[in-house]
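Tokens in:
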């Protein structure tokens, strides 16, 4: 019983982490390009990326309705949150030059 729970949590964690990493890449790539384009166009690009992120997060959390497994949902939520927090700490405390 507990092995199935652990496997479900790990599957959700991996899935959520992958979606979280993709979310980070979407925003980071838009921010890097924002300096190259005029302000209204940069705002539109960022807004589009955030809308894509919200849709990805919603679809990731919708796995609960597909699998009907609460532990996959919990793992996915933790994975989505964990990547964002780890990257926020990395960029807040480890001052590296943005390339």
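Residues out:
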């Amino acid at each position: 019983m507990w092995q199935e729970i652990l496997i479900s949590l790990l599957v959700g964690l991996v899935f959520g982490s992958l979606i979280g990493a993709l979310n980070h890449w979407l925003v980071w790539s838009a921010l890097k390009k924002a300096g190259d384009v005029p302000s209204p166009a940069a705002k539109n690009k960022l807004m589009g990326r955030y809308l894509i992120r919200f849709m990805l997060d919603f679809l990731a959390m919708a796995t609960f309705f597909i699998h009907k497994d609460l532990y996959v949902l919990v793992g996915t939520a933790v994975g989505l949150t964990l990547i964002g927090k780890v990257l926020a700490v990395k960029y807040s405390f480890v001052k590296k030059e943005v390339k």
